[in-house]
Write a structure and sequence with these properties.
42% helix; three-stranded antiparallel β-sheet; five-stranded mixed β-sheet
Length: 355
């Protein structure tokens, strides 16, 4: 091969790589058959949303894969079977109220949007999580004047409260969205955090939890974004309300079940699992460690299948189905905003079938 032909080959490969990268950033891009069952299942759900009959079969998916140059039909059968098995399993993993939470129906290798089509706000919650996974959430998280990543943090807080056992009007379970108070969501790990905002947020958190005794940096500023990967905090109190007593409130270390969580949209979150260390966070920024170390939580809009045991050794992981399983009696305003964001995304991608 001549030097000129080698250069031409590299140039062609580079152009193809850029083309594929640009394709992957589109909501309706066709994934590789090797992308995994969860990705192919998401692709099927998205196709069902925009087809006139609102249904997708294994043949439709196979045709789309063949169109981008995938292998022959025989080689595609197993990935397609895995994808439709995953779609059927999603219904089971959504819990006893799955029909109210999942807007599709699965029968063999046929997926269809359930009739009537989603119309009320709560019917869009699953679509909100699906779209927030498959979109490029660095560039396209804002739609209809709403930030999808920020909405997901608020949704995760409500889900965490319910997993912590909250029932309606139960004041023993509470929490805060911590992430939006401290730094730009697009911040790189080495970007600096505004110390005044961060310290005020930590002070407010300690006061609300009655744990930690306020802000105290163990190391001098600057504070980096990688040092503060905390998005939501949830806790369950006791009826004795230790810490409200005028004498006792000077020492906020009373012992309760606390959860520190990260929230990730999109599909490139795998390397972030375990980067939040609740005990280290408290040691670095609280005056005192809580008596009971916080549980490490990790929330994703994505559907996570493997390697489950490897990832969950570090965190209590909530994937799309686990999030929805505990999405009971959510605040009406939050559900409405999630639905409005999902509708705006669909309209932006030429999908509109609700009244």
């Amino acid at each position: 091969m001549t030097a000129r032909s080698r250069v031409a080959k590299k140039t062609t490969a580079k152009k193809a790589s850029k083309k594929n990268a640009a394709r992957r950033k589109r909501l309706y891009y066709t994934p590789s058959a090797q992308a995994g069952a969860a990705v192919l299942a998401d692709f099927a759900e998205l196709l069902a949303l925009r087809r006139e009959d609102f249904q997708v079969s294994g043949r439709h998916i196979m045709t789309a894969l063949e169109r981008i140059g995938e292998e022959d039909e025989e080689a595609l059968e197993r990935p397609l079977n895995d994808a439709f098995q995953e779609l059927a399993i999603r219904v089971l993993h959504l819990g006893p109220d799955a029909r109210d939470r999942y807007p599709f129906e699965v029968s063999g290798d046929l997926l269809q949007l359930r009739m009537p089509h989603p119309s009320v706000d709560k019917d869009f919650l699953y679509l909100f999580l699906l779209l927030a996974t498959r979109l490029n959430m660095k560039r396209s998280r804002k739609h209809g004047g709403l930030d999808g990543a920020e909405l997901f943090e608020h949704l995760c807080l409500e889900v965490a409260k319910r997993y912590w056992g909250a029932v309606q009007n139960d004041e023993r379970v509470d929490g805060v969205v911590f992430g939006t108070a401290r730094y730009n969501r697009d911040a790189a790990d080495d970007d600096e955090v505004d110390e005044n905002k961060f310290s005020a947020a930590v002070e407010s958190l300690c006061e609300a939890m009655r744990e930690g005794n306020g802000y105290r940096a163990k190391d001098p500023p600057p504070i980096k974004a990688k040092d503060a990967k905390l998005d939501v905090v949830v806790w369950r109190d006791f009826a004795d309300q230790r810490g409200k007593d005028p004498v006792d409130k000077l020492r906020h270390r009373h012992g309760k079940l606390i959860g520190f969580g990260q929230c990730k949209t999109g599909s490139t979150w795998h390397d972030e699992v375990g980067k939040l260390d609740p005990e280290k966070f408290c040691a670095n920024w609280f005056h005192d460690l809580p008596l009971v170390r916080p549980v490490n939580l990790f929330f994703v809009t994505d559907r996570f299948l493997r390697p489950w045991h490897e990832k969950t050794q570090k965190v209590l992981l909530f994937d799309r189905c686990r999030v929805l399983e505990y999405a009971d009696q959510l605040p009406k305003d939050l559900v409405g905003k999630c639905a409005d964001w999902a509708r705006a995304v669909l309209v932006a991608h030429s999908v509109r079938w609700w009244k």
